[in-house]
Structure formats: structure tokens, C-alpha cells
Amino acid sequence: MLHTILFLIFGGICVAGALNFLLQRHPVNSALSLIVVMGSLALLFLLLGAEFVAAVQIIVYAGAVMVLFVFVIMLLNAGEEERTHGSRVALVLGVPGLIALFGLLCWTVSSSRSQLGQVQIGGYYVPTTELGIALFREFLLPFEITSVLVLIAIMGAVVLARKERQ
Amino acid sequence: MELLQYLIFAVIKIALLLFILLTAVAYIVLMERKVIARMQNRWGPNRVGPFGLLQPLADGIKFILKEDIIPDSVYKPLYIAAPMIALTLSLISISIIPFGGEWTIGSYHIPLQTTAFWNGNGIQDINIGLLIILGITSLGVYGVALSGWSSNSKYSLLGSLRASAQLISYELALGLSLVGVLLLAGSLSLRQIVDSQAGSLLNWNFFGGLQFVAFFIYIMAAYAETNRIPFDLPEAETELVAGYHTEYSAMKFAMFFMAEYCNMVTVACLATLLFFGGWHSPLEGLHLPVPAIWLMISPLFWFFVKVFFFIFVYIWVRGTLPRFRYDQLMAFGWKFLLPLSIANIVVTSLVLALRS
Fold first, then answer.
1. What ipTM describes this predicted complex?
2. What are phi and psi of B286, to 5 degrees?
3. How far apart are CA A35 and CA A17, in angstroms?
4. Rounded distance, CA A45 to CA A144, Å?
5. Beta carbons of B138 and A63 less than 8 Å apart
6. pLDDT tens digit at each of 356 positions of chain B
7. 3-class DSSP string for chain B
8. Which residues of chain B are within 8 Å of residue A128 when distances are taken between CB atoms?
9. Which residues contact B112 (CB under 8 A, 6 or more apart)?
10. Which of B88, B115, B139 to mutate to probe the A interface, most A CBs <10 Å?
11. What three-state secondary structure class fits A138?
12. Do the Cβ atoms of A59 and B131 come within 8 Å?
């Protein structure tokens, strides 16, 4: 019961933040609503018992990635967007596509409903130590490959940003 | 019934904590002015009340009564929200700090922490307390960044750009310096980290855990995170007027001020909990005969003594060191603190692996 209420509250905030993100005309306001989305996603993770993932979501996404976004927006002094009438292609293809995607999602969830259970607070609690053990024993190779990927991305950024020596 | 009891205790604890914290912040400002004055051969504030002890009250009244000016060209929603964000986040992070074990009054067990409760046979603490504090401090950048941007002034914008870059850079060293402590304690719960240091002075992470390198990295990164001298470039008054809060006046300025000092208190509390045994007495291993009432007060006493010491160090450093240059600040953070904290993790985990 409590879980459902909290889920509805934070899910609602999340969707509202995402809509506000699209509707706001000023880039800083959009970035701020994206932070709200990240924060409410973290709380949804917390409701599922994934406390470490929730904390990392706040620290990495809301605290580091979005700070860089806001930083760049401030640095470039990006102004307000202008409203356009929107293209006709988006209207013709986008709306039916959206409805089809939504219908597909609803159908998938409702057809497998008999196999799904009701989540309760504390039902799927995963301590951080178990997460660490799983990452470094069972999923060591994917974990290491991901870190190499991130390293390559960092090196690429350094190469691109470095000044050419004459 | 149990929920009601929990709610009553929680509200009482929050009210007490807020009262004590905000009073402490006011008097830390007075202490800072007094101590700095003595270091510079002056008297400091001594006109209001005995020894100037009522100065914070006078300052508070002044802040409330002054005209709250909102400049014409600011972006109003964020200009008003920014000081609130800063103060709220700094107040949230202190709620996770445990101040002592527990008080048993009659049949009630009261943990001395706002976000912990007694679940029947033990204290239920937040499992990821340390991560939550790190997360909230990393969100604290927004207060600074948004205030600078929404003020629509060159000095404010430059100050907040400096602040954002500095906070992101030093957050890495700050987070990594705590990993050694986590390895030693094997937990992210602040209560369990403190319990792992119980026993005697030699069990404290600073001495017995050999985390003094981590401690110095932590303290330096934390000074940068709280925008204090020698890392106070975001509000360097000789270059930027006052940095990100140049355009703020009256209570809005006071909110930034309070947020900064609350963050200082949080940093001091965290240093105490992680490296200096929290509320455990340094005389614990000696088994001295003490009266029963002292056992109840002793944790709080030692905790506040240690926190007071770290706040004094803050002021001491401010009275001693000059400000860094900006490129020196970045080089220091990325080229010295970050590699050193990674080396500390490697050495600590090696020692732990060899010992087990």
C-alpha cells in the first residue's frame, strides 16, 4: 500500500519533470527539470531496494553530469528557444508511432501480469556488499570492459581537446 | 502507536537539531571573528553584550530588517530559489550525522541521530549514509551555480563558474579519500564506521587505521568544497567583489552565509566520524572509574570537542594561509590530491589483503 502511494508520487513527479523538460523554452529550466527526473528516478530505485544504484544515480547523474550540462549552458549563455510550428512529418509519423509504442508497452506488461508479483518496501533489498561481490565475481569481464570503454572515451576527449603544437 | 512514538521523537529531534545547529552557526561566526582578530592583534567584536557575546543576535536582527533588494535584470524564479536550494541541502546533509550512541530513558531507546530509529532490538541506521551525504553535497553546486547565473552580473557568473569547476574537481579527491575508511569498516553506514573504531585511541582510523594521508586529502578537498580559504576563489573579494552572492542582500545573503557555515559543521562532523572515532572517548582503553551520569554525557561531550577542534582548525587556516591562484588550485586537485588518494586506496587494500 505504502509502496504504491510512494511509487505514484515519485512516478508522477518523474513524468511531470520530463514533460516540463520538453515544454520549457529556456535551456537552464530544461536542465533543472531533467535533474528533477534524475532525482525521482533515484527514489524509484530506492523503492525497489537498490540503495547503491539510487545513491549513484544522484551522485553521478544529478551531481556530476547535470552540473556539467548547466555549466556549459551558463558558459555559452544560451538564450531562449523560439517556438516553431513543428514539422508535418512529426505530426503524421510521430503521434501514431507514440500510440503504437505505448500500446505495445501496455500489452507486454498486461500479458505477463500473471508472472509478476507485487513489490513491497524492503522486499528486494540488496546490500552494497552483495552488489560488489556480484560485479567482481560473476560479471567481472563486462565490468572491466565497460571501464576500458569509459577510459577510451576519456582519452578520445583529451585528444580532441588538446591544442595542436606547431 | 509505534509510528506515533517514532514521529514524536523525530519531530523533537529535528527541532532540537535545527535550534542547536543554527545557534552554533551564529556563534561560529562570532568565534571566527574573535579568533581571526586575535591572530591579527586586534580585539574583534566586543561592544554588544559581555565580550561581544550578543553580536550574532544583533547581526541576525540586522539581516532580517534590511531591505531585500531584487535587481531589475535578474532571472527572478531561480534568483529566489538559489539561496533556498543552498540552505536546504546543507541542512539535509546534517540530518544523517549520528551524534552519539543512544539514550535510554525509561523504556524508550532514543538514538542520537535524526534519521535513525529503534526497531525493537537495535538501532536502524541508513545503510548508505555516507553516500547520501556525498550525493547531497554534490547537489549543493546548484545553489552556487544558479545564483551566479540568475543574478545576470559578470562577477556573479565568474564566481559561480569558478565554484562549479572547483566543486566538480575536488569532489573526486574527496570521494576517493573516503574509500580507505570504507575498506577498513566494511560498511557505508556512519554508525557502523564509528563502531568499528571503538575500543581505544589506537583503533581510530587516523592512528590505528593509518589513514592520516586520507585524512589530509579529505580535509583539503573539503575546504575546497566549502569555498573556504585557501580555496575561496569563488568569492575572492579582491577579484570578484563577492563572487556568486554579489547581487544578494538581506536574508537571501544570510541564507548563503548560513549554508556555508552549516557545510563547515557537516565537514567537521564527518571528519570526526570517519577518522577520529566519532563519539568514542580517547581514554576508552584505560578503564578509568567514571560516574554513571558521565557515561550518558561523555559521547556527546567528546563528539562536540572534536567537532569544535575541526572548526577551530578551519578558522586557524583562514588566519594563516593566503589564497591560491586558480591554475594552482586546479593543478593541486588533479595532479596531486587525486593520484595521492588513488595510491592511498591501493596501499590500504594491499595492507588489508596481506593482514587477512
1. 0.77
2. -85, -10
3. 8
4. 24
5. yes
6. 577 877 888 888 889 888 988 888 889 989 998 898 988 888 888 888 788 888 888 888 888 888 888 888 888 888 888 899 989 998 888 888 888 777 777 777 777 777 777 766 677 777 788 888 888 888 888 888 888 888 888 888 888 888 888 888 888 888 888 888 888 888 888 888 888 887 777 777 777 777 888 888 999 998 888 888 788 777 777 777 777 888 888 888 888 888 889 988 998 998 888 888 878 877 776 777 777 777 778 888 888 898 999 999 988 988 888 888 888 888 888 889 899 999 999 998 898 888 87
7. CHHHHHHHHHHHHHHHHHHHHHHHHHHHHHHHHHHHHHHCCCCCCCCCCHHHCCHHHHHHHHHHHCCCCCCCCCCHHHHHHHHHHHHHHHHHHHCCCCCCCEEEECCEEEECCCCCEECCCCEECCCCHHHHHHHHHHHCHHHHHHHHHHCCCHHHHHHHHHHHHHHHHHHHHHHHHCHHHHHHHCCCCHHHHHHCCCCCHHHCCCCCCCCHHHHHHHHHHHHHHCCCCCCCHHHCHHHHCCHHHCCCCHHHHHHHHHHHHHHHHHHHHHHHHHHCCCCCCCCHHHCCCCCHHHHHHHHHHHHHHHHHHHHHHHHHHHHHCCCCCHHHHHHHHHHHHHHHHHHHHHHHHHHHHHHC
8. 127-128, 188
9. B98, B99, B100, B101, B102, B103, B299, B300
10. B139
11. coil
12. yes
Find the farthest-apart pair of alpha carbons in chain B and give their distance in angstroms, rounded: 67
What pTM, to 2 d.p., does this model score?
A: 0.84
Residue ranges of chain B whose CB lies within 8 Å of a chain A CB: 78, 127-128, 131-132, 134-136, 138-139, 141-142, 145-146, 148-149, 157, 160-161, 164-165, 167-168, 171, 175, 186, 188
Grid coordinates of B272: 570526526
Q: Does the beta-carbon distance from A129 to B145 stay under 8 Å?
A: no
- Grid coordinates of B323: 589564497
